[in-house]
Amino acid sequence: MSEYRNLIGGELLAAASGRTLDSVNPATGRVWARIPASGPADAEAAVAAARAAFPAWSAMPALGRAGHLRKVARIFTEHAEELARVETRDNGRILRDTLKKDLPGMTYLWELAAGQVLDAVKGDSVILGPSSMGFTRREPYGVVVCVIPWNSPISTFSGKAAHALAAGNTVILKPAEQASVSMLRLAELLADVLPPGVLNIVSGLGEEVGDALVRHPGVDKVSLTGSTETARVITRAGADALKPMTFELGGKSPNIVFADADLDAAAQGLTVNSIFTGNAGQVCVAGSRILIQRPVWDETLERVRAIAGHIRLGDPLDLATTMGPIVSPGQYDRVTGYLEIAEKEGAERVFGGRHGADALGGGPGAAEFAGGYWVEPTLYTTTDNSLRICQEEIFGPVAVAIPFDTDDEALAIANDSRYGLAAGVWTRDLARAHRFVRDLHTGNVWVNTFRQMPPGLPFGGVKDSGYGNDSLLSYTREKTAIIQL
């Protein structure tokens, strides 16, 4: 049993109360680590440490901050396998994703942020007249609280912290209580890499330490990746202080297949790269609504069924495993509850539906993981986009397919959602592709691909999927000055 501590002011500390929370391996259902159950006292200490570190960090030449960010990048390179295994054990995201995709990508992201530091101190100038000029300068906000979810802690942490630190802010990270261990192990590795107080990592329940951080008058900005309901709670908590906030929230992303599409590529994009594999559909951009033009309806469903039939559930640490478990008992109950809702609503099940030990199929090693939170890939069909399984975010390996006839009908179904995070379009028609990029009410559109989120491009949503993004400039504010000579 491993026990982890917070990082506050460069020191590794237990929660002030001495309380801990259990971390459960979702593949087995067994406790494997303990994390601090932090509260208001720990939030106060973290804010004090971050505020004390801010003057020197923000005043440091940008290239000096870049040097520190490159040290962080080296930590990700040197400890990639360990961090990948810890995250896989903690949240069930399969090792072939954490090790082969996440960690190499994060090394690149921190290096990229180091190379962009000068953008955070650039401004514009305007000659207003013979003896007057105006200019702008970018400044960091100060202390930034970053709240991250359990589905991909290493990636989400890096997307926020690398840019916030590059811009000259100090950071307090609040990881999700369901999966904090990779962040707390990272805290141990980074304790001597960054100046004390520049990065602080505090675990615990949202209603205890998270609420205290968001409400604290010493916090200058909040950045959340999480659920829409969590965003509403944070908005209310921070309303009195009028803190600037960035929200990257949930989605109910449409993945639209036209009759002229490359159906082999589309079928991969509807399954392996979208909703089922890797993190078991626990991805904000998961293509959980599959819209298929009627002439290729049957053929596309058969291709999807064939691919789903080869998805392998099992030990997330086995590189041959292609889909892991649901993260926690609460999320497992939510996902399986939607299976019942789908049946009651009259949706037709194409495949899947088994959960618990039954989802493992009794294969080798099934007994070892029988206590885990398993749901097999599941697909329903309907013609009614108003069903709850079409409108509500399930956050699991459950998709629903809807037929359409015309471009206008596809667009209407796709936009008929309170979410607006992402969409996929599969077509060989260039004019149609551009029309859908323009007319889809989402923050991201992928054409003939899906779930591509390179660090060099902004990522965010509209409607109930949030606003803002985690780019470098989003962690700066612009000041205008006018000088009369």
TrEMBL record:
Source organism, top-level taxon: Bacteria
**Active-site feature positions:** 248
Q: Which GO terms describe its molecular function?
A: oxidoreductase activity, acting on the aldehyde or oxo group of donors, NAD or NADP as acceptor
Q: Where is the Aldehyde dehydrogenase domain?
A: 17-474
The protein's matches in PROSITE patterns, at most eight in alphabetical order, are given as: ALDEHYDE_DEHYDR_GLU
Alphabetized UniProt keyword annotations = Oxidoreductase
The entry assigns this protein to a family as follows: Belongs to the aldehyde dehydrogenase family.
Return the protein name: Aldehyde dehydrogenase family protein
The source organism is Bailinhaonella thermotolerans
Taxonomic lineage is: Bacteria, Bacillati, Actinomycetota, Actinomycetes, Streptosporangiales
